[in-house]
Amino acid sequence: MNQNEIIAILDxxxxxxxxxxxxxxxxxxxxxxxWVTQKDKKHFRGRAxxxxxxxxxYEPNWTA
Length: 64
Hints:
Blueprint: H1 3-15, E1 20-23, H2 28-35, E2 44-48, E3 54-58
């Protein structure tokens, strides 16, 4: 998974094109490295699954 693919996924979550995206365990660190650089990173919500995958959604009104 490269930087352009990750940015495209984040943009699709933002726009509502997709409701959620499942990041496989083996791609988590590369996904996270791009996610933390986003201005609106607090609007992304990650839910850890058993086995190490994480499902991300974009929820602008959600706060931790």
